[in-house]
Amino acid sequence: MPEGDVVWWTARRLNEALAGRKLTVSDFRVPRFATTDLTGREVLEVVARGKHLLIRVGGVPPLTVHTHLRMEGSWRVRPAAARRPAGHQVRLVLGNESWQATGYQLGVVEVVRTAQENRVTGHLGPDLLGPDWDPDEAVRRLRATADRPVGEALLDQRNLAGIGNLYKSEVLFLRGVHPWLPAGELPEEATARLVELARRLLDANKNRVGQVTTGIAGRGSETWVYGRRGLPCRRCGTRIRSAEQGAEPGERITYWCPHCQR
What we know:
Elements lengths: L3 H15 L6 E4 L14 E7 L2 E6 L5 E6 L5 E6 L10 E6 L3 E6 L3 E6 L4 H4 L13 H10 L5 H6 L9 H10 L13 H18 L35 E4 L8 E4 L6
Antiparallel strand pairs: 1-6, 2-3, 3-4, 4-8, 5-7, 6-7, 9-10
Helix pairs in contact: 3-6, 5-6
């Protein structure tokens, strides 16, 4: 699942291609909005909110195209002269005289009034890469879920927005925290250090393709534990383990070192 840094980078790329230009292409390929036509409207900006993308469009009333990548979604930007994309994976095409942006396998595509954006993002906690980032509030929300395993609490976007399986596993390893430790048993200072490390890692990766937490970008060397089940821990040599964690089987895999994260 794309994480907050990937969504931030995607928003920046879409903003560069669409903002400040009037739409000449508006092609919604989801039943609910199949008749929606935004041609002639100017795209004001594209921003990320956690893992959500908000394409704000001018006009009366101002509208927001809200999308979410979920597990498999992606956006691609091509020159306007490129052939209009076809195929069942295409969910949305927005374009202007210079660029064409295509959303593939998007988990959510909807149009809401910009004044009502809170309806789709109001539940989110502080955004790790957002201008509203509030570490104290993120710590408070995490600790409020006292009996919940910290690995689950970190993934709950109502606590803090932007963390997915990769960063969850990596920050817990780097801070030596067992994924199934109840969040309330982690001291407040340790929770704050966990949150700050998560922010630093996302911020370090937001301007590049790929995610690196070890400082080594070579293939197979990017992460400490994520995706390394059965391989030796880079610190102690113990075999890395993995297991499902949470209420969504197959989507919430946690990786950890049994020795470094007792």
